[in-house]
Design goal:
The longest helix has 15 residues. By secondary structure, the protein is mainly α.
Length: 77
């Protein structure tokens, strides 16, 4: 599974986001993700991909695309 698939799957399954709402340019806040939900999402991504996202700073203003890019940047090739 690549980073985008993991992020999209978690958004739908764990946070109840409608698949149609997930777009690269969609701000995370438009998906009703607050800072607490983002922290939970970060932990879930770290567990699923066995990576460390501590250096990644995310806010509800970031977009889905920025989140995926940040995860992609930490996933070992």
């Amino acid at each position: 599974m690549n980073a985008a698939e993991v992020v999209n799957t978690l958004l739908v399954q764990r946070f109840g986001v409608a698949p149609a709402a997930i777009a690269e340019e969609a701000p995370l806040r438009s998906l009703r993700l607050d800072s607490l939900a983002l922290e939970e999402l970060r932990v879930l991504i770290e567990e699923r991909l066995d990576i460390d996202l501590d250096a990644v700073s995310l806010t509800p203003r970031n977009t889905v695309g920025q989140l995926v890019a940040a995860v992609d940047g930490t996933v070992p090739a």
